[in-house]
UniProtKB/TrEMBL annotation:
Record-annotated Aminotransferase class V domain positions: 76-299
Cofactor(s) needed: pyridoxal 5'-phosphate
N6-(pyridoxal phosphate)lysine sites (modified residues): 204
PANTHER family: 2-AMINOETHYLPHOSPHONATE--PYRUVATE TRANSAMINASE
Organism: Falsihalocynthiibacter arcticus
Domain of life, per lineage: Bacteria
Xref: InterPro entries: Aminotrans_V_dom, NH2EtPonate_pyrv_transaminase, PyrdxlP-dep_Trfase, PyrdxlP-dep_Trfase_major, PyrdxlP-dep_Trfase_small, SP_NH2Trfase/AEP_transaminase
Alphabetic keyword roster: Aminotransferase, Pyridoxal phosphate, Pyruvate, Transferase
Record field: catalytic activity: (2-aminoethyl)phosphonate + pyruvate = phosphonoacetaldehyde + L-alanine
Pfam families (UniProt xref): Aminotran_5 (PF00266)
Binding positions for substrate per the UniProt entry: 349
Name of the protein: 2-aminoethylphosphonate--pyruvate transaminase
Gene Ontology MF annotations: 2-aminoethylphosphonate-pyruvate transaminase activity
Protein's job: Involved in phosphonate degradation.
Length: 395
C-alpha cells in the first residue's frame, strides 16, 4: 500500500485543540467545504448523498453488498434512537450491555420506546464478556436482540464486540452495535464480525462536523423494519426507501455538514482508511499515555482495554490539584480536555481523535507538566482508593 499523503495542519491561530470525543478538531479543508450553499433536491447534492453512502459502505469491506447506509439528521443519539425503534419489533426484547453513560442511554431510549429490555450493567469500566452474555441469552429465550457499545466513550473502554457477536449468533439472536466513537478508526468488517446494524455519526472518527448520523444495516433488516418505528422522522425504513427512490433525504438535510463530511471521507481514504486512521489514533494514545504516566498520572484502564479513542485518567491525590484550575490552565495552553464520568473517583479524559498527531500529543503532555507545576502539584499520582478500584479490573 502506498504511503498515505497526510499531514496534520495546525488549527487556526488561537483555536484550541479539542481533546474531546466529538465535536473534535477538524481540518481547514473540512471547514472550508461549508462555504457554499447547496439545493437539497439538486442533482449535485443528490450525487453527494450517493457518494457519502457508497463511501461509508466501502468501510465494511468484502460482503458490503448485503448492507446499505442510511444517513439520518440530528446528533448521534437521534440515529441510535432511529436504529432501536426501527429494527426492534414492538414485540421484541433487548439485552443492553452497559458499562457507562451510552449503554445507560440506550436503556433509557428503549424505556421511551416501550420496548422490553434487560440490562447487564457492568458499572463504570468492566467489559461485558461473552460467557455472561451467553448465559443471559440461554436463561431468557424471549430476548431477540443484543445491543453493544463498541467504544464506551464515558470511560474509553473498547468492548469485546467480536466475542459478544459470536455468542449472540450462537444463541440465534441479533446484534446491533453503537459504534459511534469507533467506526472509521476500528475495523468492523462484515467478513470478520457479524451484526445486523451499526450506528455512528459525522463528528467522530471520520472527522466531520456535527449534524447527522448514519445507520449501516443489512438490507434484509431494512426491508423487515417497515412499520416498526414509533416515529415519523426517525423511521430508518422510510428514510432508506425514500433515499433509494429519489436520492434525497426526506426532510431538510444538513447540506453544509454533508459537503464537509465528503471532504472528510476523502481525507480518511487518503490517510489509509480505517487502518490508517486507527494507526494514527493508536500512536496518539501511546505517546500521550506514556507521557502522562511519566508525570505520575494513572489510567483508569489496564492497557488491554484502553481504546485509541479516549483515555480516562485519575485526578492526582495532591491537595493542590483542582480539576477546574487544571482545565483552565490546559485551555490557556491550547488544549480543551474533558471532565471524567466515573461515579467512584475523580477523573478526567483526554481524547485521541480528530486532526491531531503524536507531535500534538507531546505538546499536550508538556502542557500538563507545566500546568501541574503552576498548581504546585509535585506528583500526579492518584489516591490509593483509585488504584484499589482499578485492581478489580485485573481479570
Ligand atoms: C458520541 C456518542 C453517541 C452520540 O452522542 P451525541 O451527543 O448524540 O452525538 C452515542 N454513543 C456513543 C458511544 C458516543 O460516543
Amino acid at each position: 500500500m502506498a504511503a498515505p499523503e497526510f499531514k496534520i495542519p495546525r488549527p487556526h491561530l488561537g483555536e484550541p485543540y479539542l481533546l474531546t470525543p466529538g465535536p473534535l478538531t477538524t481540518s481547514y479543508v473540512v471547514k472550508q467545504a461549508m462555504l457554499r450553499d447547496w439545493g437539497s433536491w439538486d442533482d449535485d447534492f443528490r450525487g453527494m448523498t450517493r457518494e457519502l453512502r457508497a463511501r461509508l459502505l466501502d468501510l465494511l469491506g468484502a460482503g458490503k453488498e448485503a448492507f446499505d447506509c442510511v444517513p439520518m439528521q440530528g446528533s448521534g443519539t437521534f440515529s441510535v434512537e432511529a436504529m432501536l425503534g426501527s429494527f426492534i419489533p414492538r414485540n421484541g426484547k433487548v439485552l443492553v450491555l452497559a458499562n457507562g453513560a451510552y449503554g445507560k442511554r440506550t436503556a433509557q431510549t428503549l424505556e421511551y420506546l416501550g420496548r422490553a429490555h434487560v440490562v447487564l450493567d457492568k458499572g463504570d469500566y468492566l467489559p461485558p464478556r461473552g460467557a455472561e452474555v451467553a448465559k443471559i441469552l440461554a436463561d431468557d429465550p424471549a430476548i431477540t436482540h443484543v445491543v453493544a457499545i463498541h467504544c464506551e466513550t464515558s470511560s474509553g473502554i473498547l468492548n469485546p464486540v467480536e466475542e459478544i457477536s459470536e455468542v449472540t449468533y450462537a444463541a440465534g439472536r441479533k446484534l446491533l452495535i453503537d459504534s459511534m466513537s469507533a467506526f472509521g478508526a476500528i475495523e468492523l468488517k462484515v467478513a470478520d464480525i457479524r451484526y445486523e446494524a451499526l450506528v455512528s455519526s459525522a463528528n467522530k472518527c471520520i472527522e466531520g462536523v456535527p449534524g447527522f448520523g448514519f445507520i449501516i444495516a443489512r438490507k434484509t433488516e431494512l426491508e423487515a423494519a417497515k412499520g416498526n418505528s414509533h416515529s415519523l422522522s426517525l423511521d430508518v425504513h422510510a428514510q432508506w426507501a425514500h433515499m433509494n427512490k429519489t436520492e434525497q433525504w426526506r426532510f431538510t438535510p444538513p447540506t453544509h455538514v454533508v459537503a464537509a463530511f465528503l471532504v472528510a471521507l476523502r481525507a480518511h481514504e487518503a490517510e489509509g482508511g480505517v487502518a490508517g486512521r486507527g494507526a494514527r489514533y493508536t500512536r496518539n494514545r501511546d505517546v500521550m499515555v506514556a507521557g502522562m504516566r511519566d508525570l505520575g498520572f494513572e489510567t483508569l484502564l489496564k492497557d488491554r482495554w484502553l481504546s485509541p479513542i479516549i483515555v480516562t485518567f485519575f485526578c492526582p491525590s495532591d491537595d493542590n490539584f483542582a480539576f477546574d484550575r487544571f482545565y483552565e490552565l490546559m485551555k490557556d495552553k491550547g488544549f480543551i480536555i474533558y471532565p471524567g464520568k466515573l461515579t467512584v473517583v475523580d477523573s478526567f479524559r483526554v481524547g485521541c481523535i480528530g486532526q491531531m498527531d503524536e507531535h500534538v500529543m507531546r505538546q499536550v503532555v508538556a502542557a500538563a507538566k507545566e500546568a501541574l507545576a503552576e498548581m504546585g502539584v509535585a506528583n500526579a499520582a492518584p489516591p490509593a482508593r483509585a488504584l484499589e478500584e482499578r485492581a478489580i479490573l485485573a481479570a
